[in-house]
Amino acid sequence: MRKKMYEDCNNNAEFLKGLFHQMQALSDSELNWRISSFDFIPVDKGDCIGGVPDIEMEQLYNFQKRLSDEHTIIIIHNDFMGLLKNVKTIYEGRLEVIIKGKPLKIKIFDGDIIEIDGEMEAELKF
């Protein structure tokens, strides 16, 4: 298991997206993320534009509601990365992915402690 203490816990999404992209690059096919916990702060760009809900923010809220209702969801990498472009900070998360038949688990605590556990962890640069 590798641990990283990320110093700017209020802006960790860019760092984590880079890490997730590294994971996708290790795989021969699109990853399926299994997410069982995900507490985040969205980018502050307002929920509505001219009284109409922003489509991207609505998708992010629907993702959060689905996770709350189902407790564990599976989402493909490209869809997950599309949602993350509107996330500023991830405070807590439990994510699992299979890369080349080997499980890799990511845990995020308080936005600044990131744990990665699995056989492929040595392949990641952080």
How would you portray this structure in words?
The protein is of the alpha+beta class and 126 residues long. It has one domain (2-123). 30% of the residues lie in helices and 40% in strands. It has helices at residues 13-26, 55-70, 77-84, and strands at 2-5, 32-42, 48-49, 52-53, 73-76, 87-99, 102-109, 113-118. It is globular, with a radius of gyration of 15 Å.
Topology:
Elements: E1 2-5, H1 13-26, E2 32-42, E3 48-49, E4 52-53, H2 55-70, E5 73-76, H3 77-84, E6 87-99, E7 102-109, E8 113-118
Antiparallel strand pairs: 1-8, 2-5, 2-6, 3-4, 6-7, 7-8
The count of DSSP E runs of length 2 or more, i.e. the number of strands, is: 8
How many individual domains?
Answer: 1
Q: Quick one: overall form? A: globular
Number of helices: 3
**Order of helix and strand elements from N to C terminus:** EHEEEHEHEEE
Strand content: 35-45%
- Euclidean distance between termini CA atoms: 13 Å
**Secondary structure category:** alpha+beta
Stretches where pLDDT falls below 50 for ≥5 residues?
none
Strand neighbour order, sheet with most strands: 1-8-7-6-2-5
Give the helix proportion (percent range).
Answer: 25-40%
